[in-house]
């Protein structure tokens, strides 16, 4: 392998744009050889970022995978339903993989990919970017240091944010579990991965409940039209109005608008909203993924954990209760105490505050610095260094297993209390 890690990109959407920009900002560490996507303008955006005059463009994963191996590593950032097939083929061709999460649509497929990686002696690094943030790296360091004693329980909470929920999980790519993956996998595989990573003990039982509480037709305000652009009487006031894509919610539009390179006029966006899934009334979509879910977990070391996911909060919060001390951290703690972590010692009641560098102004603040952290760590992981805490597929099976089992339990619908 040359000193630069060479990359090809399979799927040139939002995630690939982020990773390739970061890779090219790290002088001399990466080169981008090729990109494949049916949307030519997206491949073109990667070509521009690559700054490589010999960059090769392909119109699909299939076309790229028909070519002999042309780089060290393939980034697979297609949608959830199309990770397994290209990943298998890329491993056979001899690529290492940076594979978007979730690794595949079932635990059996994920185990098969892990086996294939072993067979071909390749590495599959999953994009569990939270592991590479200052925040979770610090939490892991504290847990591993023994400062908290033995973990007795973990309480994790993820607030997706109402507009984000509507954009991605009601109107968007992850609205239907059959087309992609269930919410607890699509969104919360990050959280189950972190819980499994911190707990460091196999999970032995999972149960879960959850459903759609709000994003259904019965909650549509009176007179709401099928699309926000159909003259809906609520278009100016509704939290979820698609017209907000042209004003204060443009950030979300950038992730899904067909041509990322083109300057857009407002009227052009409105015309697009008239025909695109993102122009639909959030109460009249074909979504089937949950807007709230609770997961209970029990581990072989005797500890337990809970994860709550809701559309109606914003940010992640984590609490770890150990035999020597408890730790609290995340967005709710930051809002309330203006610090990242609080550790309370059970012996003397003293509270230690830990404040981490503020990344909000940084260009690479995405996912709390995790996108940047992952790309920065990538070459080292591929070269076999610092692998014990890395998001290699073999280290990430238990988190996936919790998610898939939670969904199974949720569908079984708990034990009913007789009315
Ligand atoms: N790690 C994270 O934190 C994180 C965050 C968001 C999304 N994701 C995951 O990343 C993946 C990609 O998400 P995204 O937001 O970039 O989606 P996206 O829709 O922006 O990108 C996917 C791209 O794949 C392309 N594509 C479709 N069929 C193809 C084919 N046959 N060959 C090649 N390309 C094809 C699409 O045209 C699109 O450009 C998803 O699995 C998603 O769940 C991960």
Model description:
- The chain is α/β, with parallel strands linked by helices and 419 residues long.
- The protein has three domains: 5-126, NAD(P)-binding Rossmann-like Domain (Rossmann fold, 3-Layer(aba) Sandwich); 131-215 and 287-412, Dihydrodipicolinate Reductase, domain 2, CATH 3.30.360; 217-279, no CATH class.
- Helices cover 33% and strands 20% of the residues.
- It has 14 helices and 14 strands.
- The strands form two sheets. It has an eight-stranded mixed β-sheet with strand order 8-9-10-7-11-12-13-14. The protein has a six-stranded parallel β-sheet with strand order 3-2-1-4-5-6, sandwiched between helices.
- Helix 1 (14-25) runs parallel beside helix 2 (40-50), helix 4 packs parallel to helix 5 and helix 9 (189-199) crosses helix 14.
- The termini are far apart.
- The mean pLDDT is 95.
- Bound molecules: nicotinamide-adenine-dinucleotide (NAD).
- Nicotinamide-adenine-dinucleotide (NAD) binds next to helix 1.
- The site of nicotinamide-adenine-dinucleotide has 26 residues, from helix 1.
């Amino acid at each position: 392998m040359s000193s630069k890690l060479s990359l090809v990109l399979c799927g040139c959407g939002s995630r690939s744009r982020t990773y390739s920009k970061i890779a090219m900002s790290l002088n001399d560490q990466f080169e981008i050889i090729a990109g494949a996507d049916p949307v030519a303008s997206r491949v073109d955006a990667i070509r521009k970022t690559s700054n490589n005059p010999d960059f090769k463009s392909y119109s699909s994963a299939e076309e790229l995978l028909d070519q002999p191996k042309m780089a060290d590593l393939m980034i697979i950032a297609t949608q959830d339903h199309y990770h397994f097939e290209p990943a298998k083929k890329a491993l056979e061709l001899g690529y290492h993989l940076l594979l978007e999460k979730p690794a595949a649509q079932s635990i059996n497929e994920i185990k098969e990919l892990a086996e294939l990686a072993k067979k071909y002696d390749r590495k599959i690094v999953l994009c569990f970017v939270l592991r590479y943030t200052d925040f979770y790296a610090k939490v892991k360091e504290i847990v591993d240091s023994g400062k908290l004693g033995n973990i007795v329980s973990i309480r994790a909470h993820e607030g997706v944010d109402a507009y984000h929920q509507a954009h991605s999980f009601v109107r968007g790519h992850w609205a239907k579990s059959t087309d992609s993956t269930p919410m607890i996998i699509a969104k919360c595989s990050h959280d189950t991965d972190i819980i499994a990573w911190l707990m460091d003990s196999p999970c032995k039982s999972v149960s879960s409940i959850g459903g759609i509480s709000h994003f259904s037709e019965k909650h549509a305000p009176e007179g709401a039209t099928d699309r926000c652009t159909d003259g809906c009487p609520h278009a100016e006031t509704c939290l979820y109005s698609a017209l907000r894509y042209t004003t204060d919610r443009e950030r979300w539009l950038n992730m899904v608008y067909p041509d990322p390179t083109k300057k857009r006029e407002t009227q052009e966006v409105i015309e697009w909203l008239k025909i695109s899934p993102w122009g639909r009334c959030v109460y009249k979509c074909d979504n089937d993924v949950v807007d709230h879910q609770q997961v209970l977990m029990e581990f072989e070391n005797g500890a337990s954990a809970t994860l709550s996911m809701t559309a109606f909060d914003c940010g992640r919060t984590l609490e770890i209760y150990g035999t020597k001390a408890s730790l609290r951290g995340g967005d709710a703690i930051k809002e309330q105490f203006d610090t990242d972590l609080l550790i309370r010692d059970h012996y003397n009641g003293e509270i230690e505050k830990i404040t981490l560098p503020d990344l909000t102004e940084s260009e690479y603040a995405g996912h709390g610095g995790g996108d940047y952290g992952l790309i920065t760590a990538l070459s080292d992981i591929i070269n076999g260094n610092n692998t014990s805490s890395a998001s290699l597929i073999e280290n990430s099976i238990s988190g996936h297993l919790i998610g898939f089992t939670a969904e199974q339990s949720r569908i079984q619908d708990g034990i009913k209390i007789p009315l």
